Amino acid sequence: MDDTGKTPAEDVSFFKAEEPFALFDAWLTQARESEPNDATAMALASVDEDGMPNVRMVLLKAVDERGFVFYTNFDSAKGVELLGQKKAALCFHWKSLHRQIRIRGSVHSVSSEEADAYYNSRDRSSRIGAWASRQSRPMSDRFELEREVAKYAAKYVIGAIPRPAYWSGFRVVPMSIEFWRDKPFRLHDRRKFTRQTEEDNWTVEQLFP
To answer: For the chain, which terminal residue's Cβ has fewer other Cβ atoms within 10 angstroms, N or C?
Structure first.
C-alpha cells in the first residue's frame, strides 16, 4: 500500500485478473519499455523421443487468446521434438522488472497463411538463410554454410523468395500460465491460471512463494 492506504494499480490488476492474456499483455508492454534487449525472448523447453529435455531461447512473434507463436525449421531438433511430443513449456524472465511467466501447454502448427505472412515480413537475407541452413545438423565448417547462402542468394536474386515447406511456426496453447514477481525477503507473489482443455474457462489460484 502507498501512504494513502490504497493498493497500487498494478497490484489490483495482478490480484484481480481472472484470465491470463490481458495480464500477459500488460507485463509484455512494460517489458518492452524496460528490457535492454529482446523483451520477447523466451526459453522453450521440449522433450525428445527418449524423454530427455531440451531448452533454448526463441523469440515470441505473436500472442493472442489462441496461444504463443514462434517460428523455426521443422527439421531442427526442436521442430522434430515438438512435432513428435506435441507439448512444450515456455518461460519469460524480465530481469529489469523482477518478473517471470511460466507457460505449459500443447503444441499446434500455425496455418500456411500465418507462416507465409510472417516469412514474407522477414528481411530478405533471413529468408535466404531459411533455405541455406540445415538447422541442427552437422556441417564441415563455416564455409559450407556460406556456400549454401551464396547458392540460394543466386537462385533468388530477383523476385519473391518462397517459404520452404519445412519452415513454419508453432503455437503453444497454454494449459497453465503462472505469473511470478519479486517481493522483499523472498515473499514473492505467484498467481497461477490453469484449465483442463483448450475450451475450458480458467481456474485461478495464489501459490506460496
So the answer is: N
Q: What is the reported pTM?
A: 0.91
pLDDT tens-digit series, residues 58-105: 999 999 999 999 999 999 999 999 999 999 999 999 999 999 999 999
CA atoms within 13 A on the CB side of 19: 9
Mean pLDDT of 174-198: 96
The pLDDT tens digits of the residues spanning 107-155 come to 999 999 999 999 999 999 999 999 999 999 999 999 999 999 999 999 9
How many Cα neighbours within 13 Å face the side chain of 131? 18
Angstrom CA distances, 124 to 142, 162, 176, stand at 21, 11, 37
Annotated catalytic residue, options 186, 190, 191, 195: 186
Give residues with Cβ within 8 angstroms of 44, minimum separation 6.
55, 56, 57, 58, 70, 78, 88, 89, 90
Q: Which of 59, 78, 89, 105 is nearest to 166 (CA)?
A: 78
Burial class (CB in 10 A: 0-12, 13-18, 19+), 108: middle
| Phi, psi (deg, nearest 5) at residue 147 | -60, -45
- The domain limits of the chain are 9-110+171-206
Smallest Cα–Cα separation from 60: which of 52, 51, 69, 50? 69
| Alpha-carbon span 37 to 3, nearest angstrom | 35
Say whether 186 is catalytic: yes
Name the CATH topology of 9-110+171-206. Answer: Pnp Oxidase; Chain A (2.30.110)
